[in-house]
Amino acid sequence: MAKEAKDSLIRLSKSCLSDAEKNAVIGVLNREYLGMGDEVRRFEAALEEFLGRPAVCVANGTAALHLAIQAAGIGQGDEVLVQSMTYVASFQAISATGARPVACDVNPDSLTLDWRDAEKRISPRTKAVMPVHYSGGAGALDEIYEFAKKYDLRVIEDAAHAFGSEYNGKKIGGFGDTACFSFDGIKNITSGEGGCVVTSDQRILEKVKDARLLGVRRDTDARFSGKRSWHPDVTAQGWRYHMSNLMAAIGLVQLANFDRPAERRRLLAQLYHRRLTGHSSITPILVDFSTIVPHIFVVRINGLIDRGRLRKEMLEQGIETGIHYFPSHELSYYHDENLDPLPVTEILSQEVLTLPLHPDLSDKDIERVVETLLSCLSTNRFISVGKTQLA
User: Fold this and answer.
1) Is residue 369 part of a domain?
2) Residue 224: count of CB within 10 angstroms of its CB
3) Which of 256, 279, 313 is the last residue of a domain?
4) Does residue 371 surpass a pLDDT of 80?
5) Domain presence at residue 248
6) CA–CA separation, 373 and 239 (whole Å)
7) How confident is the model at residue 385 (pLDDT cuts 50, 70, 90)?
8) FRET partner for 161 with CA separation of 20 to 30 A, picked from 51, 167, 254, 276?
9) How many C-beta atoms surround the C-beta of residue 362 within 10 A?
10) Which of 171, 187, 207, 209 is catalytic?
């Protein structure tokens, strides 16, 4: 990478923090109670106010999915429908319970779950469906809930990308069955690491509260009052998945100041969309930027044949790019010779490219990314006109 490009690297994603988060962490350090306590209690209360439903905070988004599935009574021998085009965390959370993730195809416009394809993959062992809110959009969520009701399935939303997004005028997580968020370092809000389970199902909430603390019954109440359960009882499998006060302190500041970075993400994504829409080789993912808070900005490059070289050339010019995602059903651990084909996933997974998006980017940065991408594509070295493309 040329020195001038490296010095002005446009990062794909980053944690966006202020002195307020740093001071909040120092406050926890000064109080010398770093585990799960009052900051976690206050963060949960703030999330409930923001979303309109109770939230239980855990160590990360994968833990949230794992505990939500387990709390729903899903386990050994059961099956959960989930799109293959997702981070492996979705699959790992399912298999961690002993259940089997059943890979499904995606809608080519939104890259969210194709419920019609999922319906073809139902078996007597199917217990739940996990829609993944790709890039912040929820896709055909009404239809997914109707489909789940028809087959008596739980719906556990992987909303890791979608904090702050809305669907039909309601915040994601504020309605429906169960939603799980991630607060890792580059998400729409961060607590460094962390996640939460959001639901109105009191049974799920109580099970998750206990399970995050090694299954110790009602240990949450003790921790929130600064105590410990010295005579514990455990009636079910638990995990060390609780959130710490350090993490919650960061999350509290991020949530209180959420509006500015959320709006900045929208504006940057809209700028990308305006600049790239209409290019013959580029198809932006279909989302409504007035209702979502985009976590990533992904484009399809139709007929892309050498993504690795394209990414290398852009990096040499100081621009990081990503891939969201490599299909989970093609990973060795989840490979199934008997799986019916996923034609949309198998094409799109070769054509998607993720461009830099985070609140610290400037409009000028976006223009530089767009100009670099279009310059690279203008040579036609990366695109095969004869390659099979999606309509």
Assistant:
1) yes
2) 15
3) 256
4) yes
5) yes
6) 45
7) low
8) 276
9) 10
10) 187
Q: Is residue 142 part of a domain?
A: yes
Structurally, the chain folds into a number of domains equal to 2
Task: Clarify whether 187 is annotated catalytic.
Answer: yes
Is residue 220 classed as helix, strand or coil in its secondary structure? helix
**What stretch of H or E contains 355?**
strand 352-355
The pLDDT of residue 382: 80
The overall average pLDDT reported for the chain is 95
Tokens matching residue 187: 């998400």
pLDDT digits (tens, 9 = 90+) for 292-315: 999 999 999 999 999 999 999 999
Share of residues in the chain with pLDDT > 70 (%): 96
Beta carbons within 8 Å of 181's beta carbon, 6+ residues apart = 61, 64, 159, 160, 162, 163, 173, 187, 195, 196, 198
Of 234, 256, 278, the domain-final residue: 256
121 and 167 in a single domain? The answer is yes
Q: Which residues contact 180 (CB under 8 A, 6 or more apart)?
A: 61, 64, 65, 68, 156, 157, 158, 159, 160, 195, 196, 197, 198
pLDDT in tens, 313-345: 999 999 999 999 999 999 999 999 999 999 999
| 307, 369: one domain | yes
Q: Which tokens in the block code for residue 289?
A: 């930027």
In this prediction the pTM is: 0.95
- The whole-number pLDDT of residue 286 equals 85
Calpha distance 61→184 (Å, rounded) = 8
Distance CA 65, CA 365 (A): 35
With residue 48 as reference, give the H or E element that holds it: helix 38-51
DSSP 340: P
Are 191 and 66 part of one and the same domain? yes
Tokens 């669907």 found at: 167
What is d(CA 133, CA 100) in angstroms, rounded to the nearest whole number?
Answer: 20
Structure tokens that stand for 34 in this block: 């770093």
